[in-house]
Amino acid sequence: MFQKGLKGIVAVQTAIASVEGDKGELRYRGTLIDEVINQKSFEQTAYFLWHGHHASNEELARLIEQLKSYRQLPDYLMAIAQVLPKEISLMDGMRTLVSAYLHAEFKELEIHQQAIALTAALPVMTALLYRQSTGQEFVAPRSDLGHTANYLWMIKGQVPTHAQTEALETYLNLTMEHGMNASTFAGRVTISTESDLSAAIVSAIGTMKGPLHGGAPSGVLELLDEIQSPERINPVIEQKLAQGEKIMGFGHRVYRTEDPRAILLRKKCQQLQQEDSWLDLAVKAETKITQLLNERKPGRALYTNVEFYAAAIMRSIQMSPELFTPTFSIARIVGWTAHAIEQQQDNVIFRPQSEYIGN
């Protein structure tokens, strides 16, 4: 039976993640997301998604060293970045550099190692392109910082605070994987042709670029900017509701209850809100907005989605809106590569049928 966009059609069987929208549950490798990421670093969560079990101390130490070793981009890749048009978007630049990341040493790696290499290299590519686009000198990666802190270091040129690193790391861990979304499917289709992993990631990045999938939460950023302070929450929201405007950051196309990622981001922001004014504003704003929505729209059960607190975190670390989708991709590359590895293990090329409706 024909379904536009393949909605409701099972295309693959996977052991990587499951999304239960009616229950409001997201699981990595069969385990609820809050249990997976509890007090875990980016490196630990990535290892769990790739391998299906938590890393031992030795396995984690080896992964950390491998990720650090791939932070240095080849000279030819740095040169390519420098000659890209200034007006090129960050996502287009990332796609270009990933497509060129096929040097001899990389080609000799088996796919698990290639996944680690690309995961380590993508934040460096992003920081390089971003600072180049803003007329700033490239900030070289540091070997004494973890994956998340090093990304912020390269973007900002200064060591991030504990609150900034912890907030962003929670976001990255929560968005590494989310089932058979458009970019993941695109990557699996590419790898199913027995193409290479770089090509699969290029396909995924090209898909993530689309505003229907990886678009930045500009509406939420604008809302927080308009509110500015806790005492302005009620008047701003009441005016928007009176004018029939949509309150950005509330509601989700999949989850019919609270988005589990938003719940965990809220908890992290609550833990850190005393350390950052933007996180404090987001926590207070959600409480009051939810109350006002329940009063004005009873029975609608409108909850915050992951973009609400993601926007608060991006604002708290003073990250430019143009970096949101690239940062999303830096997290999701773990899921993309995990799916590519899984596809290779029992591969059948994707070849769906089409229904001719012409004359």
What topology emerges from the helices and strands here?
Elements: E1 17-20, E2 25-28, E3 31-32, H1 33-37, H2 42-51, H3 57-69, H4 75-82, H5 90-100, H6 104-107, H7 111-133, H8 147-156, H9 162-174, H10 182-192, H11 197-208, H12 211-214, H13 218-227, H14 233-242, H15 260-272, H16 277-296, H17 306-316, H18 324-345
Antiparallel strand pairs: 1-2, 2-3
Helix pairs in contact: 2-18, 3-7, 5-7, 5-11, 7-8, 7-18, 9-15, 9-17, 9-18, 10-11, 10-18, 11-18, 13-17, 14-16, 15-16, 15-17, 16-17
Keywords: Transferase
GO biological process, one term: tricarboxylic acid cycle
GO cellular component, one term: cytosol
CATH superfamily of the largest domain: Citrate Synthase, domain 1
Tell me the count of domains: 2
Task: Give me the number of helical elements.
Answer: 18
Task: Please state roughly what percent of the residues sit in beta strands, choosing from under 5%, 5-15%, 15-25%, 25-35%, 35-45% or over 45%.
Answer: under 5%
Assign the structural class, choosing from mainly alpha, mainly beta, alpha/beta, alpha+beta, or little secondary structure.
mainly alpha
The CATH architecture classification of the largest domain is Orthogonal Bundle
Q: Which sheet architecture does the biggest sheet show?
A: 3 strands, antiparallel
| Level-1 CATH class name of the largest domain | Mainly Alpha
| N-to-C CA distance | 21 Å
Assembly classification: single chain
* Stretches with pLDDT under 50, minimum 5 residues: none
User: How large, in whole angstroms, is the Cα Rg?
Assistant: 21 Å
Number of strands: 3
Instruction: Identify the overall geometry.
Output: globular
Q: Tell me the helix content.
A: 55-70%
Mean pLDDT: 92
Q: What is the CATH T-level topology of the largest domain? A: Citrate Synthase, domain 1
In the sheet with the most strands, the strands line up as 1-2-3
How would you spell out the order of helices and strands? Answer: EEEHHHHHHHHHHHHHHHHHH
Keywords: Transferase
Protein name: Citrate synthase
Catalytic activity: oxaloacetate + acetyl-CoA + H2O = citrate + CoA + H(+)
GO molecular function: citrate synthase activity
